[in-house]
Write a structure and sequence with these properties.
single chain, about 270 residues, alpha+beta, 6-stranded antiparallel β-sheet, 5-stranded antiparallel β-sheet, 15 strands, about 25% helix
Length: about 270
């Protein structure tokens, strides 16, 4: 990876779309105060990546068969049959795109063949550095509005450059489902491809019982759990403090390309 090349680059095509935002470790203030102060595991997961927002305020409604959509200024509810463009975007796309791509504007909403499934485009496109992918998922530890769930996707965006979309399952019928342009819809997390390679995922050991645990594991448990629990004056959040100190001091560089790249951007 070039030192000047960003790990993640996001392009905005729909001008009205809110720019992506670094995911907030407090989950926009929704994490309990104690979790925010002392639970480094929760805050690290919450702040890992970038928030992406709906391109506009809109509503969807599913009657069990068909999906309809509406936004402020629309004359009435409109059917998705099967797709809809963002208002006035097709003309803007044709004015900016090369002649060979005119008429190829990506749809904003698409009703998928499966009942209750809809695809939404954020108005953005994403590109990652070589050997990095984009994990597109629901925001970590952030409450979502009711009425839908977000599917996760892992896209090799260093090789595939296209609309940053999400597939959603609508979970309620005959009641409007609201999407706010100022509330995160997705979390985009850059992930080195080695992290989910078959070789990596197959490099897992299972220890079937306590009798098989080594002195190293027992010592680790003692240092992590037993000794601190015997100290009535122990400070809260010792793990959080230790992790933050390590981050402040820089990450050690291990062997391997991906590990070195992770150390560079930590």
């Amino acid at each position: 990876m070039s030192h000047s090349e960003p790990v993640l680059q996001i392009h905005r095509l729909i001008r009205q779309a809110r720019p992506p935002q670094r995911a907030d470790r407090s989950a926009a203030g929704t994490l309990p105060t104690r979790a925010y102060r002392y639970c480094e595991a929760a805050t690290s997961a919450t702040g890992f990546g970038w928030w992406v927002f709906p391109a506009m305020d809109l509503q969807l409604i599913w009657d069990g068969d068909d999906i309809y959509w509406h936004y402020d200024g629309a004359p009435d509810w409109m059917p998705l049959s099967p797709a809809a463009q963002f208002p006035d975007f097709a003309n803007a796309f044709d004015e900016a795109a090369p002649e060979s791509l005119r008429g190829c504007a990506p749809p904003f909403l698409t009703a998928l063949p499966e009942k209750g499934l809809v695809q939404m485009w954020t108005g953005l496109m994403a590109r990652t550095a070589g050997d990095w992918s984009a994990l597109v998922r629901a925001p970590a530890n952030l409450p979502l509005a009711s009425g839908y769930t977000v599917y996760e996707g892992l896209v090799e965006t260093d090789r595939w450059f296209g609309p940053l979309i999400t597939n959603m399952r609508l979970t309620q019928t005959n009641k409007p489902i609201h999407f706010r342009a100022d509330w995160p819809l997705l979390q985009v997390q850059p992930v080195p491809r080695i992290a989910y390679a078959e070789k990596t995922l197959n490099s897992v050991a299972f220890v079937p019982d306590m009798a098989s645990m080594t002195d190293r594991e027992w010592r680790g448990y003692e240092e992590t759990i037993a000794i601190p629990s015997e100290n009535p004056d122990r400070p809260f959040g010792a793990y959080a403090v230790a992790v933050r100190k390590r981050r402040a001091g820089g990450c050690p560089v291990h062997t391997g390309k991906a590990e070195a790249e992770l150390a560079e951007i930590a």
